[in-house]
Amino acid sequence: YGGSSTFCSFSLAMAEQCLRGEELRARHQAALLKLRRKALREKARAELAWLGHQKRCLENLQDSQAASAMAAKQHKILTELKQEEAEIQHLQNLYRAAHQERKLLLKQQREILMMQHSTAQLQEKLRNLTG
């Protein structure tokens, strides 16, 4: 496994490529979660604006029961938004932790491969000196 310098170089290049791929996946995941959060906020803002308009119309008509129902719906939308944002934050934390773990494993693999490569080079030099 560590005897071939070419194999070690190839493995090292593969580990580097995996690290770059992992960084790219992490950036994509972060961007997707950011877009999801933005879309949720925009949706909630639009729904709240609509319900606010309906509530004002009902208040103008002096229908306090229906206006109260609109206020309850607004509260429900805000509660759901907070729950969704908490879920997104939880996912971000999970993805961040998993990314860091994979990144650490890849870096350790890279270090092992570099040590194997150095060992193979030293063994080759020793063979050349003694042979």
From TrEMBL:
GO terms for biological process: microtubule anchoring. InterPro entries: CEP350/CC187. GO terms for cellular component: centrosome. The keyword Ribonucleoprotein does not apply. Keywords: Coiled coil. Residues 74-108 form a coiled coil. One of its GO terms (molecular function) is microtubule binding. This is Centrosome-associated protein 350. It comes from Tauraco erythrolophus.
